[in-house]
Amino acid sequence: MDWRLKNTSERYGLVAQFLHWSVVVGIMLQYAWAWRIDNTESIRQQFSLVNEHKSIGMTILLLVLLRIGWRAINQTPDHPPGTRLWQANAANFTHALLYFLILLMPLTGWMYSSAAGYGAEFYGLLDIPDFVPTSERLESFMHLAHESMAWAIPIVVLVHVAAALRHHFVLKDDVLKRMLP
Ligand code: HEM
Ligand code: HEM
């Protein structure tokens, strides 16, 4: 175990690891909830599942914002020795794309709900203010954006996971291990 909180030039610290893996779990829950919403007959249950989806989604937004802030004040580990330029570019590009998607996914959900007039809430504890006006056009645009990104995320994550597994099992370096305690 390595208990360091902050990143070093060789590995991610516990804070970055916690933020990475909690967002992974959160996103998996969101897909599970979306599936449950589609597969329940009961309107009452659908209603509470959608509210839970919004609460989990707003939690993810908070974690992603913390994560971006933490990344800004922390060093990012270097690419492992021997990394080619194209590999470094591919990794940087995929990471940037993932950040873009995990930030916009909750934001489009929030705007979609706000535009529909059924804003976001947080575990029944508080109603989160709408930051866009009620509008049918905006609602359908944000719905389309939310749905399109719901398709894009698994594709980019697949590439990302394939790269992580290739590093671990084929190249046998410590890229996967450095995102684990
Ligand atoms: C990273 C966070 C999120 C992920 C991964 C996610 C994922 C999804 C997925 C996969 C769907 C189903 C799309 C489809 O119709 O095929 C969906 C639907 C939806 N999402 Fe999200 N979502 C997130 C955050 C949010 C947030 C923060 C809100 C609102 C505050 C939200 C509101 C909704 C709504 C209202 C639907 C439509 C549900 C229905 O009636 O079928 N989402 N989301
Ligand atoms: C929803 C799924 C996922 C998302 C959104 C995601 C996102 C990200 C992002 C944005 C980074 C860059 C971190 C930074 O430098 O700030 C990263 C790094 C990393 N992720 Fe993921 N990830 C996901 C799932 C996974 C899974 C399932 C694995 C393992 C199989 C994994 C393994 C890694 C590793 C090893 C790194 C460090 C790469 C390096 O050292 O350059 N990720 N991830």
- Rounded to an integer in angstroms, the radius of gyration calculated over CA atoms is 18 Å
Classify the beta-strand content into a percent band: under 5%
Number of domains: 1
The share of residues in helices is 55-70%
Give the bound compounds: protoporphyrin IX containing FE
Outline the biggest β-sheet: 2 strands, antiparallel
How many E strands?
A: 2
What is the CATH architecture annotation? Up-down Bundle
> What is the CATH third-level topology name?
Fumarate Reductase Cytochrome B subunit
* Class inferred from helices and paired strands: mainly alpha
User: What strand line-up does the widest sheet have?
Assistant: 1-2
Estimate the global geometry from the Cα principal axes: elongated
Counting DSSP H or I runs of 4 or more residues, the number of helices is 4
Q: Give the SSE string.
A: HHHEEH
Task: Fill in the keyword field for this structure.
181 residues, mainly alpha, Fumarate Reductase Cytochrome B subunit, two-stranded antiparallel ribbon, 2 strands, binds protoporphyrin IX containing FE
